[in-house]
Structure formats: C-alpha cells, structure tokens
Amino acid sequence: xxxxxxxxxxxxxxxxxxxxxxxxxxxxxxxxxxxxxxxxxxxxxxxxxxxxxxxxxxxxxxxxxxxxxxxxxxxxxxxxxxxxxxxxxxxxxxxxxxxxxxxxxxxxxxxxxxxxxxxxxxxxxxxxxxxxxxxxxxxxxxxxxxxxxxxxxxxxxxxxxxxxxxxxxxxxxxxxxxxxxxxxxxxxxxxxxxxxxxxxxxxxxxxxxxxxxxxxxxxxxxxxxxxxxxxxxxxxxxxxxxxxxxxxxxxxxxxxxxxxxxxxxxxxxxxxxxxxxxxxxxxxxxxxxxxxxxxxxxxxxxxxxxxxxxxxxxxxxxxxxxxxxxxxxxxxxxxxxxxxxxxxxxxxxxxxxxx
Length: 355
What we know:
Elements: E1 36-40, E2 45-49, E3 56-58, E4 64-66, E5 71-78, H1 85-103, E6 110-116, E7 119-125, E8 132-141, E9 144-153, H2 157-169, E10 171-172, H3 177-193, H4 197-210, H5 215-228, H6 233-244, H7 252-268, H8 272-285, H9 290-303, H10 306-319, H11 323-329, H12 340-345
Antiparallel strand pairs: 1-2, 2-10, 3-4, 4-5, 5-9, 6-7, 7-8, 8-9
Helix pairs in contact: 3-4, 3-5, 4-5, 5-6, 5-7, 6-7, 7-8, 7-9, 8-9, 9-10
C-alpha cells in the first residue's frame, strides 16, 4: 500500500462582507446618552463607543475611527474546541508575541498588562518615536474567539475611555445557522492549510455532530483524519463512508480525494474487500492516477486475485516507474513473490515503460 503525501482540500465556503446575514435581534441595556452603537454584521457582535467631543466614523464591518486617531475594530480567530475568553487571550498572546519577536524586536509587545473582567491584554508596540498603545479584549462564541482591538497613539487620554466603554458593553450575538456553518467550515479548512490536522478534525467533527447530514463536514473530517495518519483512521473512516454516500453534494475532485483516502484507510484497517470496492471506483474515475492503480493492486493481491493485481500493478508502474521498487518490498504483494510475471514486473523500470 502506498500513501501519497499531499492533497488539495476543496471546501466551498466564502465570507464576503456583503453576503453576511444580519445578526439576530437581542435585547440590550439602554446606551448612555450620546454613545455611538456599533453593530458588526460580519462577526455578529455589537458594542458602544463613548460620547465625547470627537465624532466617530463607523463602517458596516464594525470598524470605527475618531478624529483624534483612536481606532476600534473587531476580528476573530478559531480554536479547535470551545474555549473561554481567557483561553482566547492566552492563545493570542502566545502567537502574537512569538511572531512579533521573530519579525522585529522593535515591534514586539512591551509594557504589557492583563485583566480578567473582561479578559484583556494591553501593550505598546511600534518604534520609540511613534509608539502605539494596543488594548485587546477577548470573548468566546463556542470554539471561536472574538477580539475587540482599540489602538491609539501612546498617551491618548480618550483611548482608555473608548476601550472601557466598548469592552464592557460588548455583546456576542448568536450567528444564524448558515453563517455558523460557514465559519466552522472555514475554520476546519484553515487548520488543514496550516497543517494542524488534529484541530481540523475537532472542528469538522463538531460540525458533523451538529449537522449530521452535512457531507462537507464529514469530508473535512475524513481529510483531517487521513492527514493525521493511521492513529486516526478508525475515527475518520465513518466520516468517509458518509461522505461517499453523498455524491451529489461533493465535487468530482472531492469525491476522488475521498475515494483515495477511504481506500488507503480501509486497507490499513484490514477491511480489504471494502477497500477493493472503493479503489475499483477510483481507478475508473482516475485511470491515470498511479497511486490508485497501485493500491487497487494491493487490495486484489490480498483478496487472492493474482492476475487482477498484476494487471493494475503493471498500469501503476507504467505511470510511475518508482512504484516497482515499492512493490518489491510491500507485504501486500507477498502472495505474488516468486511468480515470474510479478518478479519481472517489479524490476526497476523507466517511468512510462510497460513490460
């Protein structure tokens, strides 16, 4: 059996600001006279800016800027599992501090302080001639962290009032189901792209548990388990079975990826007959995929179909000559060793040559 090392994950999800649905209406306490209410339709939050002499310019995305240069914005980042606000803060501090210190010592956080109600982190960054004071407050919606960021020139007296007002009035609203599904799919895909398959599997499985009829959640969990390797195969295979039953919900490329992953996993789990059925479809869909032909040959050899195994191994070696060397030492072909047609085939051949 041969496991390939890379794949493309194609989960269709978009997060364009104009397509975000409005946040649900939630009753909130009355705003102080003169306060500016900010509704962030993208992240599903709202907060209050304090009254004052400055006028605020507020965008639909929830960003705000005062005439004096104080800025407030909301961002988010995913974690693998449901978290607290303090978890979000600790994760952000660890990641940002390491990144800034690696990028430029002059821009690394300094003069740091933290607080707990709400969970917050304040620090100064930037060059000494133009320091910037950053005030961050953290909130959680399940496994997603919401961040309120207020920044200003160091020493601006109004920035602290802005942060206090915004942080203490900050409301995390429930997202509509469609929007939450989109966030979860993007979170899982992002973890996979960053090679954090364990976190991706947690996010996709949580989504699949909440929406068991969503094929893309099961497809994502399958891909994450495949990336994790044999230790996760038993956990990921049920997701693969569900994904493959939902052909109309997957693109052709996604189904091919699912067939490749499920075929390898079933071979590794000694589900040989099921693996052969899966890989038979794969070689029909992708006859020029060398690994597919090779793994189908492995399954046939283990089932006792010597001629079928030779035929597909011959095709695999024709597509990729290096697979001849793999077959010589692969225990899946032990039943064929000593047979002349196998021994001749697994001699090293130029790529594209057929015996």
